[in-house]
């Protein structure tokens, strides 16, 4: 069900505007838009040369805010295509005065238009929409289409960290990642009953775990 548009959304977005970068494109035709470039200068944006980690599909920002606060020497970019959702995330970051976090509003398919190549040190995919119907498989954030995009942005040694509650999506991700040149490590079929330390629980993760669903997790990297 589509989320109802927030009351006074534009004003709320403006109130936390310093935390949001809009991936707006004049031409919405994908084949035309992919050649557009308005690359972010991360040194200018954050005022330092710290590593850049990126969460794709950040939701209301619980994970992004928590991990940014825990790691002040890393800069974080959190991507979310819904203004209705990103406004909550950016408002949270502003209220907590988190200096090393910014949000990109837009679809992940347009990341190369705004993110310079070879600048991302880690990618987080937390509880992405599984798009369970086969005809929508190309929308999954671990489909080859998106993996090819990530490859362009990743520095050597960059890892993709994925968490999901959906077993079939997890199986699809494992197959897609391995078929596209990634190696896997630290694969867990029940994260909350494993010995993994340092997990930051997202809002979706908390809900699914309380309902008794196992949480699946993996780390993927490109062998050098």
Overview of the structural elements:
This protein is an alpha/beta fold and 224 residues long. It contains 8 helices and 8 strands, in the order αβααβαβαββαβαβαβ. Strand 2 (52-56), helix 4 and strand 3 form a beta-alpha-beta unit. The radius of gyration is 17 Å and the shape is globular.
Keywords:
224 residues, alpha/beta, Rossmann fold, 8-stranded mixed sheet, 8 helices, 31% helix, globular
Briefly characterize the structure.
With 224 residues, this protein is an alpha/beta fold. It has helices spanning 9-15, 30-33, 42-46, 62-70, 83-95, 144-153, 167-179, 203-210; strands at 20-22, 52-56, 75-80, 101-105, 120-126, 154-164, 183-188, 216-221.
Secondary structure layout plus pairing:
Layout: H1 9-15, E1 20-22, H2 30-33, H3 42-46, E2 52-56, H4 62-70, E3 75-80, H5 83-95, E4 101-105, E5 120-126, H6 144-153, E6 154-164, H7 167-179, E7 183-188, H8 203-210, E8 216-221
Parallel strand pairs: 1-4, 2-3, 2-5, 3-4, 5-6
Antiparallel strand pairs: 6-8, 7-8
Helix pairs in contact: 1-5
